[in-house]
Amino acid sequence: MVIDYKGVTFSFKAKRRRQLLKRIRLITVIVLLFCLYLIARNFLDTGKIKTVQGLLLENKAAEAAEKFKALEGSFFHRGAKKELKALLQLAAGDRASVENARAALESLDSPNSPVDYQKFLDYFSDHAQYRELKIYTAYLLRVKRLPDEAGLLFYKAMFNAAMLDFNGSLTAMGQMPPAEREKHKQELSIIDKIDNEMKVGKIDYIFDMNGKPMAYYDLRKGKTVSLTPGMFFDEFDVFNAGGKIEENLRFFCFTIDRALQEKIHFLFKSGNYRGSFLLINLNDGSIAAAYSNSLGDEGRREGARENAVFSELYEPGSIIKLLTLFGHLQSGGRDIFPFQCSGSFTLNKNIFYDWIKHNLVKDYEEALVVSCNLCFARMGIQVGAKRLTDIFKSFYFNTGNRAGLKDRCFDFKTGVFKEPGDGEYPLANLSVGLGDITVTTFHTALISAIIAQNGVIYAPHLIKNEKNLLNLAYYHHPAELLTVATDTAIFAKIKNAMIRVVEDKNGTGARSKVDFVRVGLKTGTSGKKEQGLDAILSGFFPAEKPQYAFGFRLQGVGKAEVKGAMFLKDFLISFYGRK
Fold this sequence. Notes:
Layout: H1 12-57, H2 61-72, H3 78-92, H4 95-106, H5 117-126, H6 130-142, H7 150-162, H8 166-175, H9 178-183, H10 185-200, E1 202-207, E2 213-218, E3 223-226, H11 234-239, E4 251-254, H12 258-270, E5 275-281, E6 286-293, H13 308-311, H14 321-331, E7 339-341, E8 344-347, E9 350-353, E10 359-361, H15 364-370, H16 373-383, H17 385-394, E11 406-407, E12 410-411, E13 416-417, H18 424-431, E14 437-438, H19 441-452, E15 456-458, E16 463-467, E17 473-476, E18 481-483, H20 488-503, E19 520-526, E20 534-541, E21 548-554, H21 560-575
Parallel strand pairs: 1-4
Antiparallel strand pairs: 1-2, 2-3, 4-16, 5-6, 5-21, 7-10, 8-9, 11-12, 13-14, 15-18, 16-17, 19-20, 20-21
Helix pairs in contact: 1-2, 1-3, 2-3, 3-4, 4-6, 5-6, 6-7, 7-8, 7-10, 8-10, 12-21, 14-16, 14-17, 15-20, 16-18
């Protein structure tokens, strides 16, 4: 075979040209793909920035921070990401995070950014984060994100007023163009009101459920002053210590009814009583009255004063029999009734006493009606130490600051007890609320609230909402259900017995009976005769469909069935406006 190359041209130069063109095309495709990747990545990162921004503006800070981690290492929008990171720190609100954000923004120059600055200005103002608003405003002015300062003058007027800078607020308002003033006319009238209060030297910032002032901030003394009898607000001065009120002025709406609080104050004052009183609205767990006028307050007059109704611990006495009865009924154990009360018996070589000899006690209801110590001692012994102490713990004893029993800066302390050792005598004492067991007045009301609502209640709370400078609420207390037990039939039996405490002529609460509302009640007497006995009462009303639970302590007035029951009657008359 002969191959004929005649008419065929071959050139190494042409081959190299073809290879070069091929490489150029390949490089062009790679560059084009890379450019498309950069465009797509830039587009995706812009979307991620908006996603993080959206989560943060929806108060989902944890989710926003998690999403931001995936974005932080990206090449694109470095300035915007630094700005967004600073905004995450500002939103956190704690002093260290805010200072880190301030330093970051001061070193940043990002005039063009996908971050929506207007939404964050509104976010910080709406959430009463005025220190953070000031920092972000200063950054926007420095990087000239806005064509002029006019758009920020309203925010400057706001944060200066919130920081109690009277002159700064007035100056900012005075510099606003007429169009801006008209646009923010309503908001400026509120700021102007605060400026006028600054002239006087006090700002009303804590209000009751009806908008009536409960406390004001004294600019000269730098502390909160109560306008509400029987309630201190020293906790708010501590609350604002980390972020001073001058940096974060907020307005608080309490669940307290100041008019009701004043009625309770009148009852205490007219009877020359000392002690504490708490009333819980069972519909939502809100605290309608929290009154403290304890002898224990005397030692705290010059220092920070606590509200004794939430903090002062004392021996509960027979109030605890409600829990012992719960254990007795729940155990379904041996029935000790009818029981012959001789006034005393011997346990572990110790004599266990009652106030009086009750003779024959027919059943558990009568035991609660006459509050027989010996009956309840026998019930507690029958239930046993382990089961009884477990019940006490389920009713919030020995729980510390358990979730659901704290509201912002207020701690609602509950009782503590020492678990009984071997032997029946310490267990008998625990069963009737004597010895190594203490409660707060809040806790006595809580116990009755749990019983009244068959073991399921809303978490008690004092603060209904918090508002910013413009009266916009940015925090509402979340409804939280607490379940202690689900023994509805047992709770029904205890409630019936508590009603008999008032309606039975031999009941320890008979002197509290009124003809316009039925009440469920348990009385308790504790303390030593030498110092004066304390009357402690806990209950709920109306009995048929409980709406309120209460607990109160009168110090040194004697047995609960006399002065304590009469005080309850006076309270009911005052509460319902009867004569």
